[in-house]
Amino acid sequence: CVPIDVQAACRDTTVTQELLKEGFHRDLLVKVELGEDARGCAVAAQIRLPPGIYLDPYELATLQQHNLTKAVLFPDVIDVEAPEYLARDLLLLLFLQPDARCSSCFHAAVPVHTRYHRPANGTEEALVVLESPEVLLCCCHSHLSAECWEPAEVDTPCSSDNTSSCQWHSTKHRPAYEESMLRVPVGLREHSSLVCALTLLTTGLCSGLILAAACKYGHF
């Protein structure tokens, strides 16, 4: 049981996440407002990406080279062509930048992509649920309240530019949105026969045109 005065001392940390843009290629924006002074600390959001969403490691590397984002992805080798039903969860540690307008506010954005899903029966959409991130702090030169923060099991450096691991801490936060829902368009199973027939017809027609052009203009 936590004493009342300790509960009052541990001010709420609020985290929000938004999926910007439309279609299969989106931007994930994470905003955090801390309930504790984080000067001298690194602030990050640990995000679990379900199989329906992925982050392209090559795109991430390019963004980091241009200092547009800082993140660590687990695993760092990803099949970007795999459909949702052959993919697995990913863990993203997204380093947040301070907001100049708010001393306790931090934010960061990263591009994410939606995977193709299996055709479904009776529905044209599949739902991908993105849970609220976990807020982490790494304070190498200051101390956090033991009543409010606890060590987190995160084996990663304090920044994407550092190779040595440090101790991260986590706290329970108050999410403005508990989870984000992403609606992904999918094919209808009842259209399978029609799609297969049209695909076969188109393939045969194009192959015939290519063969006719090769016979007419080719040199054998």
Question: Which regions have little confidence, pLDDT < 50, spanning 5+ residues?
Answer: 1-9
Supply Rg. 24 Å
SSE pattern, N- to C-terminal: HEEEEHEEEEEEEEEEH
- Given helix and strand content, the structural type is alpha+beta
Count, helices: 3
Range of helix content: 10-25%
**What is the number of E strands?**
14
Largest sheet composition: 6 strands, mixed
Q: Give the oligomeric state.
A: single chain
Report how far apart the termini are: 87 Å
Total number of domains? 2
Strand content: 35-45%
Mean pLDDT level:
81
Shape: elongated
Membrane topology: Single-pass membrane protein
Keywords: Endoplasmic reticulum, Glycoprotein, GPI-anchor biosynthesis, Membrane, Transmembrane, Transmembrane helix
Pfam families: PIG-X (PF08320)
Family: Belongs to the PIGX family.
What does the model show?
With 220 residues, this protein is an alpha+beta fold. The chain folds into two domains: 14-187; 188-219. The chain contains three helices and 14 strands. The protein has helices at residues 4-9, 57-65, 192-217; strands spanning 14-20, 25-33, 41-49, 53-54, 71-74, 90-95, 97-99, 102-114, 125-131, 134-139, 150-151, 169-170, 174-175, 179-185. The strands form three sheets. Strands 1, 2, 4, 7, 8 and 13 form a six-stranded mixed beta sheet that branches. Strand 1 (14-20) and strand 2 form a beta hairpin.
